[in-house]
């Protein structure tokens, strides 16, 4: 159970980092 929770949190952080990088790339591309 604990390992599953850590796995979910880790994936959430990874997905947020990818989304932030993608958003930054779009902002730079439109600038």
UniProtKB/TrEMBL annotation:
It comes from uncultured bacterium 5G4. The lineage of its organism: Bacteria, environmental samples. PROSITE patterns: PROKAR_LIPOPROTEIN. This is Lipoprotein.
């Amino acid at each position: 159970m604990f390992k599953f929770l850590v796995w979910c949190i880790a994936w959430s952080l990874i997905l947020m980092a990818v989304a932030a990088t993608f958003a930054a790339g779009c902002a730079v591309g439109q600038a």
